[in-house]
């Protein structure tokens, strides 16, 4: 734990699942799954926000970890938008995706004719363009551009990690970084978007302090994500800006505090990923029941969520059991129209991330 003289406490939450996207075969195994604490702080030297209670030795990823969003047409559209940014800013030759996961985005770029190599020691597929190793000095590739999608929020000491990538790439080249947007979390009082697995929480201004030369930056996916394209050789240690301090609103948890009371019916939750895991966990800790969790990802269906032991159902299993007009809590507002279509617009859809 860091000294209170070097950090400022922003938010605390006890006993969160260390992997909100790890699925379990039984409810008992899920309920007994490991947990960790959240102590969100602002570093008073760098201005960066992190979980000061994070223990990296707990983070061992395996094949039961399921965070694939590509099942959704809307998310595929998001990936197309990202591909366009990369085409425009980095070209389509000699690119590397660091931490390419299951290879969905890499496959999309390959289909578009992009010359790209992926690096991920946990890759499970068979594409010869993916190397099951870390991108590091000695990899034998110096790319014109590196792609880092939803990796940096998981990495302790993110600036040191970026420095390692810079050195692995010969000291230069461009980098595309995409991470969740902390400003969006704060502005939308999205307490269900803070979880143990993300050790870092970034604002757009963080990257402008981190890089001397930013080629392009902005917010995407309805503002929930931010991106930056920067020159790696301009990487620098960020310093706290007294005029741009990280700040959670005083009423950050008011939506959590307000649920209940008039809610007599157990909740039906659409979304068995990160948001749904935290929403259902803190809801149940507040003494409120959850009737069902729905997700369209086949890899999640029939499995159980960490700590709550809630079973994930397909829309085909869950929807016929619900009376018409029932409330469905939609974990991500971006998907409401898609969910309305899938469920014949027969229910009342409550976007939990609406202010």
Query: What is the CA-based Rg, rounded?
Result: 20 Å
Using DSSP, what is the number of strands? 16
Number of helices: 10
How do the helices and strands follow one another from N- to C-terminus? EHEEHEHEEEHEHEHEEHEHEEHEHE
Task: Specify the CATH architecture of the largest domain.
Answer: 3-Layer(aba) Sandwich
| Uncertain stretches of 5 or more adjacent residues | none
Mean pLDDT comes to 91
Major beta sheet, strand line-up: 6-5-4-7-8-11-10
Major sheet summary line: 7 strands, mixed
| Helical amount | 10-25%
Question: How big a fraction of the residues is strand?
Answer: 15-25%
Return the structural class: alpha/beta
Straight-line N-to-C gap: 33 Å
CATH topology of the largest domain: Rossmann fold
CATH H-tier superfamily of the largest domain: Vaccinia Virus protein VP39
Count of all domains: 2
CATH class of the largest domain: Alpha Beta
Shape: globular
């Amino acid at each position: 734990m860091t000294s209170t003289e070097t950090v400022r406490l922003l938010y605390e939450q006890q006993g969160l699942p260390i992997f909100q996207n790890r699925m379990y075969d039984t409810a008992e195994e899920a309920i007994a799954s490991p947990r960790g604490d959240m102590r969100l702080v602002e570093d008073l030297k760098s201005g960066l926000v992190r979980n000061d209670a994070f223990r990296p030795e707990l983070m061992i990823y395996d094949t039961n970890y399921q965070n694939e969003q590509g099942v959704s047409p809307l998310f595929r559209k998001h990936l197309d938008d990202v591909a366009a940014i990369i085409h425009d800013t980095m070209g389509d030759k000699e690119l590397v995706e660091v931490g390419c996961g299951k290879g969905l985005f890499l496959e999309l770029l390959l289909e578009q004719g992009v010359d790209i190599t992926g690096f991920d020691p946990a890759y499970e597929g068979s594409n010869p363009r993916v190397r099951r190793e870390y991108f590091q000095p000695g990899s034998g590739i110096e790319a014109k551009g590196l792609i880092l999608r939803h990796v940096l929020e998981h990495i302790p000491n993110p600036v040191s990690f970026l420095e390692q990538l810079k050195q692995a790439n010969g000291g230069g080249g461009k980098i595309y970084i995409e991470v969740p947007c902390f400003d969006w979390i704060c502005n939308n009082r999205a307490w269900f978007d803070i979880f143990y697995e993300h050790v870092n929480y970034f604002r757009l201004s963080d990257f402008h302090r981190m890089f001397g030369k930013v080629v392009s930056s902005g917010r995407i996916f309805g503002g929930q994500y931010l991106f930056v394209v920067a020159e790696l050789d301009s990487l620098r240690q960020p310093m706290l800006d007294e005029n741009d301090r990280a700040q959670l609103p005083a009423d950050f948890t008011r939506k959590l505090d307000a649920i209940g009371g008039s809610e007599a019916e157990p909740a039906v939750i659409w979304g068995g990923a990160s948001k749904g895991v935290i929403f259902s966990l803190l809801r149940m800790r507040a003494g409120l029941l959850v009737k069902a969790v729905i997700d369209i990802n086949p890899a999640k269906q029939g499995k159980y969520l960490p700590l709550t032991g809630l079973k994930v159902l397909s829309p085909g299993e869950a929807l016929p059991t619900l009376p018409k007009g029932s409330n469905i809590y939609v974990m991500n507002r971006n998907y409401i129209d898609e969910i309305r279509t899938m469920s014949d617009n027969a229910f009342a859809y409550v976007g939990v991330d609406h202010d």
